[in-house]
Amino acid sequence: MLRYPLFCDLQGKTCLVVGGGEVAAHKCRTLLQAGAHVTVIARWFHGDLTALAGNPHLTLTEADFDAALWPQGCWLAFAATDSPEVNQQVLEQANARHCFCNVTDAPESASFISPATIDVPPVQIALTCGGNPVYTQFLKHRVMQAIPADAPVKLRAAARLREQVKATNASRDAKRLFWQKFFTDTALEQLLPLEDEELLTDYLNYLLAQFTEEHGIR
Predict the structure, then answer these.
(1) Exposed, middle or buried, 18 (CB in 10 Å: 0-12/13-18/19+)?
(2) Does the keyword NAD apply (predicted)?
(3) pTM of the predicted model, to two decimals?
(4) Confidence of residue 88 (pLDDT cuts 50, 70, 90)
């Protein structure tokens, strides 16, 4: 494994996108969705970018790239111009600042890559296949088909019990077994589609009571 996979918390963090085309616009949209504050430097801006201009967390700077324009405290940078030379300059400036940089036309030289993603909140999956975008999209489709339709609602139900289960005296193996049973619980699977909050709460409390009775609370 040549690259270390991780998910970044960019809420309120400053990010830089150099370039004003469709690729840059896509990067901006996903960064803004992640809560980042985004500065874009470009000679011109695609309509998809100007459509985002009303976002208070987006700053559009119409200019050639210059190191003097580098935003203070930048966490991530994206070199997304149609000029390999400019993209290389952005990468060099990022490296000098110990800032991770994605280079859209030369991912092999970048300090990080943007993988294909699957977002079915709260499920997030990132995929990359050695730089082969066709197989990555093929695999993405297969993975999406494998995600159970009730995964989001089941995970939200599990989140309601997580802290209480952690607070028990149960061993790690016992807690793991609890969650394995939870995610395959037939009664829960039949209950979730009903969207009856009272019934769901009662059943979750029942499952928790069984577990705490067996293992106790710290």
Answers:
(1) buried
(2) yes
(3) 0.85
(4) very high
